[in-house]
């Protein structure tokens, strides 16, 4: 064991395994050189694959020029604390746990050279703004009146309809009475206006002292009226003579008055009203609807009222004519027309033309 000496490594040979060598290459035999040489050849052979990565000898790359776009400088991200946010004290920044593992695990914690802990302020969390959804309660709901629909109204009972019809009839009657009273008042107003005009005119004549002039005018126009009456009497007598005499004239006048007084109107179911149908056709009452029947009855009543008024008017005219043609005791012996008879038929007062009387 003492005779063995450590062998020196062969100069010029460097094993890729570093200081590690095979025991076969560390013997003192004279063939060690040849063994080392053969080992180097095996290592340099292309089929050899070393489990350790061999160092590569490469030439350094030329430096890139300054300001080139190929150089991308990586910027460090810095956390800035808001100036408006108050700075945290050391007691507030340190966590309650004093374990070193918790401090080392915190990404934002760092230890300075003095041994103090420096807390990097984190970015404040911004809570999202909660938007309130609009609601109908924000605005007051207006109170609307109920919708009135004609079909929704209840039907009135028959009694209420009859009462309404009676009220309408009373209103119509009251309107007719008011119209009649209005017409009478208008007639009275016209009469009083005429009297007022006559009185004012007479008062003016008295102020002007024109009585003598008025008397002269009265005499003048009375003479003219007498002459006109005499002319009409001559013309009437000639016409009556051509007719057949005064007796024939009186008979014709009596027949005419009788025809005027003889008026008769019949009303039945076939009442004809051109204003209702428009074409003058006969109306069948059974085929009419209730509304048309009501309108028909109303128009028929109005028509009957008009006819009754016409009958009364004609009856009055017949009475007046009868009074005119009624022979007085003085006229029974008349054989020809006289001045008094003619003026009476003309509704002229004989004393107006002949104040002294007729001869």
TrEMBL record:
GO-annotated biological processes:
DNA recombination
Composition skew (Low complexity), residue ranges: 98-110, 261-272
**Which branch of life, at top level?**
Eukaryota
- Per the record, where are the segments of Acidic residues compositional bias? 159-171
**In which residue ranges is the amino acid composition biased (Basic and acidic residues)?**
248-259
Region described as Disordered: spans on this chain: 1-30, 46-69, 98-176, 245-272
User: Any idea what this protein is called?
Assistant: Uncharacterized protein
Biological source species: Nadsonia fulvescens var. elongata DSM 6958
């Amino acid at each position: 064991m003492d005779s063995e000496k450590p062998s020196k490594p062969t100069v010029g040979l460097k094993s890729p395994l570093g200081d590690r060598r095979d025991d076969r290459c560390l013997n003192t035999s004279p063939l060690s050189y040849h063994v080392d040489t053969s080992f180097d050849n095996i290592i340099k052979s292309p089929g050899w694959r070393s489990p350790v990565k061999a160092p590569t000898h490469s030439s350094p790359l030329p430096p890139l020029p300054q300001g080139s776009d190929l150089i991308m400088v990586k910027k460090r991200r810095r956390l800035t604390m808001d100036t408006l946010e108050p700075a945290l004290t050391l007691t507030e920044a340190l966590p309650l746990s004093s374990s070193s593992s918790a401090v080392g695990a915190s990404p934002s914690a760092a230890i300075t050279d003095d041994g103090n802990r420096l807390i990097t302020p984190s970015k404040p969390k911004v809570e999202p703004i909660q938007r309130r959804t609009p609601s109908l309660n924000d605005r007051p709901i207006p109170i609307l009146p109920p919708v009135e629909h004609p079909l929704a109204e209840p039907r009135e009972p028959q009694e209420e309809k009859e009462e309404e019809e009676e009220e309408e009839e009373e209103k119509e009657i009251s309107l007719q009475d008011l119209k009649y009273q209005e017409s009478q008042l208008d007639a009275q107003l016209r009469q009083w206006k005429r009297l007022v005009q006559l009185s004012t005119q007479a008062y003016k004549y008295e102020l002007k002292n024109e009585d003598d002039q008025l008397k002269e005018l009265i005499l003048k126009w009375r003479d003219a009226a007498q002459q006109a009456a005499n002319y009409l009497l001559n013309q009437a007598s000639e016409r009556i003579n051509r007719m057949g005499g005064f007796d024939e004239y009186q008979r014709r006048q009596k027949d005419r008055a009788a025809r005027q007084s003889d008026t008769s109107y019949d009303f039945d179911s076939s009442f004809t009203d051109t204003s209702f149908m428009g074409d003058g056709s006969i109306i069948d009452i059974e085929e009419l609807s209730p509304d048309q029947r009501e309108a028909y009855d109303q128009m028929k009543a109005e028509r009957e009222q008009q006819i009754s008024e016409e009958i009364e008017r004609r009856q009055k005219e017949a009475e007046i004519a009868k009074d005119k043609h009624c022979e007085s005791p003085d006229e029974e012996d008349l054989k020809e027309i006289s001045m008094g008879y003619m003026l009476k038929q003309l509704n002229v007062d004989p004393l107006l033309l002949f104040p002294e009387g007729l001869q």
